[in-house]
Write a structure and sequence with these properties.
Blueprint: E1 32-36, H1 39-46, E2 56-59, E3 65-71, E4 74-80, H2 85-98, E5 103-113, E6 123-135, H3 151-154, H4 156-159, E7 169-176, H5 179-193, E8 198-206, H6 227-234, E9 238-242, H7 245-254, E10 259-270, H8 279-299
Parallel strand pairs: 1-4, 1-5, 5-10, 6-8, 8-9
Antiparallel strand pairs: 2-3, 3-4, 5-9, 6-7, 6-10
Helix pairs in contact: 1-8, 2-7, 5-8
This protein binds 1-O-phosphono-alpha-D-ribofuranose and uracil.
Residues 110-112, 209, 213, 241-243, 268-269 line the site of uracil.
Length: 302
């Protein structure tokens, strides 16, 4: 019987040399990568790849869909990663393993807007970068009692004080996008979509679509009534809220200079006004904005 994979204490590979989650091996992924959330958006954007060169496509058993081809004769990959920060972690770390050159990675996602003047159907470029907010499960533990066992009694240092003084949400400081790549995204997006539909703003990536994005759900004790106000107070330039960009920017920073990253998102909903984007506008922005994102990547001189 063969083991399921090799090299478990580093970046493991399957026995056909593919990485465990992207399901790719060397040569199947480019050094310029556009990541998106859903496979439909990746397929739509991949229509813009050159028809004159072969297009490699693969969906891994873990749900990553990759298209690698050329655009204006430069190699590029468009990869649908699904949702959430761990999926971005798989992408960045496994891509880093598979490509020997420096990486350029961008994200084109969807987001909610956090101020009334950021219209649905516009695009926000994460500039200067992204903060992050995470639900803090320790704050939801029962208060310590003299008789019962609480997490504080088990390990008071690790849990950081009594539950009633722990904040229910932890906010992490900004991770900055690459300023030159960001400028390139802004330029191409404004050119394709019109400058009135594209703006900069601080992004916030949340650990959930629900609790840590301030959505109400009577079935759960989330204590998030004041969360969006608290975030806006701490970061007055906050414009967009989604779930992956922070991880991309934080990993680029940790990459010892081998990954440059930037991000933009389509505003599908405005949280303060309750407006939601219509389907036709979203499809237009995914295709036209996505093509602008690819153009910025392939024209970028690294
Ligand atoms: C939530 O609906 C998802 O939409 C946003 C969030 O970041 C999260 O992944 O981005 P995508 O549309 O790129 O998936
Ligand atoms: N994606 C998110 O994560 N939040 C929104 O409000 C919209 C899209």
């Amino acid at each position: 019987q063969r083991n399921v994979y090799r090299d478990t204490n580093a970046v493991p590979r399957n026995f056909d040399s593919t990485t465990l989650h992207l399901g790719l091996k060397e040569g199947q992924i480019a050094s310029r990568i556009l990541s998106v959330g859903c496979p439909g958006r990746a397929a739509l954007i991949a229509k813009a790849l050159d028809k004159s060169s072969p297009i490699f496509s693969h969906t891994s058993p873990r749900g990553f869909t990759t298209y690698t081809g050329t655009f204006e004769r430069t190699r590029v990959s468009i990869i649908a990663i699904g949702m959430g920060m761990p999926m971005m972690d798989f992408l960045v770390r496994e891509a880093r393993q598979l490509v020997s050159k420096p990486l350029l990675i961008t994200r084109f996602g969807t987001c909610g807007a956090l101020c009334p003047d950021v219209a649905v159907g516009s695009v926000v470029v994460a500039s200067p970068g992204s903060v992050s907010v995470m639900r803090n499960p320790d704050a939801f533990l029962p208060l310590p009692t003299s008789s019962g066992t609480s997490a504080d009694e088990i390990n008071p240092i690790a849990t950081g004080g009594a539950p009633h003084v722990r904040p229910p949400y932890l906010v992490f400081a900004p991770q900055l996008a690459d300023p030159i790549l960001t400028q390139a995204l802004l330029g191409e997006l404004k050119e394709q979509l019109g400058s009135e539909h594209v703006r900069r703003g601080m992004n916030v990536s949340a650990c959930s679509f629900y609790s840590s994005q301030g959505r109400r759900d009577v079935f759960f004790d989330d204590r998030n009534e004041d969360l969006l106000d608290m975030l806006r107070e701490r970061h007055p330039s906050l414009a967009s809220m989604e779930m992956e960009s922070f991880q991309l920017l934080a990993l680029a920073r940790a990459s010892r200079g081998s990954v440059r990253a930037a991000a933009a998102s389509i505003v599908v909903a405005n949280r303060p006004t309750g407006d939601v984007c219509d389907e036709a506008r979203l499809a237009y922005l995914e295709r036209t904005g996505g093509e602008a994102m690819v153009r910025a990547l392939v024209r970028f001189e690294d």
